[in-house]
Amino acid sequence: MAREKNEMTQALLPKEKTSHEEEDPYISCSFRNTVLFAIVMLGGLLYLQAMSTSECSLSISLVAPAFGYESQEVAETPEPEIPEPEEPAQDFCAPKGLVGPLAIDFDMDKLEERFQELSESNKDFFENGEHTPENCQVQKLKNIAIIIPFRDMTKDLFRTKQFLYFLYYMIPILHRQNNHFSVYLVNQVHDDSPFNRAKLLNIGFEIAKKDGFDCFFFHDVDLVPENDQNIYECFDNPRHYSGFIDKFNYNLPYNSIFGGITAYSAEAFDKINGYSNEYWGWGGEDDDLERRTIAGAKYKLLRPEAGKSHYKMIKHGHETSNKPNPNRQKLLKAWNNHAKFDGLNSLNYELIERSNDLFFKNITVDLKYSERIPLEKLLGG
Ligand code: UDP
Ligand code: MN
């Protein structure tokens, strides 16, 4: 880890934009030779003689204005001018102050104090649960909604504590990554229906898309990146982010695993009709999403670079309100039958409450368990 840290810190040194980089002297030379050739063709034999003895050491900034090229000046080989350092171009938002590998722990005794620290140090970067970078242009696929499926019916509020820890680590990371983002906490109302992770994620997508976001992270509450070079952003092809978790010794438990965290552009998520809404209880919905994405829509199975996308998971048991779904295998087998009519195009729910906190947007929904699609129809019987 120590060795890796050095390399990663090095890699973080701010890279100058290409336009600021010193020009290759050979390019300068050949460019200048072209100009010279033109001069020769115009009968400037004298100039040619002068040039052939001078060293080709001018920077492109002196040579480039070819039209104003004064042969006398070249013949005199003036002192190379040191170009004025330009203001860094702010046409797009680049990460600022990334630190590489991070020490993550979930010491619950320190949670309150740490969250207080977070609030003090980061409050000025947020408004209405939204982080907007200053003085730069956010690229389309870096308008990021982080959508968290959530319901805390535990007595000790363990999921809520996980969420606070999630914010404690994620907010500074995403702030350094310097994009426009908002965390959407999508709460399933407290009733006796089974938990439905996928449907909550579809709802978060629909709401955040209407709010103007272009990139969607479907993100479990208990996963925290261990390196801030694990950049949160979308591409045209969706990506599975959480392939390498401490719980599985940072190995893929199986190659097509797609749970935990996935990232989609709006176009890609619309194309696959989102998640299935009909996985009630634990398991299967993530593999179903993988089938829709890879076998169905023919996207590639992509993940960020393994070395930089390690995650730490907060250890937890499974809630009694989130028992393994007994139908999950049947539903998964029939994924291609129900993908067409079960997803974003059949999303029904009631919005119970919506508010903005400092660091996140808080949404509570009723998932209408009694109005679900009958199992026989989903299975194609
Ligand atoms: N979750 C929740 N309340 C629950 C069950 C699950 O908020 O009662 C959310 C939470 O974001 C969690 C995700 O659903 O990270 C996936 O559930 P879980 O962590 O139990 O799944 P596993 O770790 O087995 O993949
Ligand atoms: Mn979990």
UniProtKB/TrEMBL annotation:
Its EC number is 2.4.1.-. GO terms for biological process: carbohydrate metabolic process. Pfam families: Glyco_transf_7C, Glyco_transf_7N. InterPro entries: Galactosyl_T, Galactosyl_T_C, Galactosyl_T_N, Nucleotide-diphossugar_trans. It is a single-pass type II membrane protein. Residues 239-316 form the Galactosyltransferase C-terminal domain. Keywords: Glycoprotein, Glycosyltransferase, Membrane, Signal-anchor, Transferase, Transmembrane, Transmembrane helix. The keyword DNA-binding does not apply. Catalyses the transfer of galactose onto proteins or lipids. Belongs to the glycosyltransferase 7 family. This is Beta-1,4-galactosyltransferase. The lineage of its organism: Eukaryota, Metazoa, Chordata, Tunicata, Appendicularia.
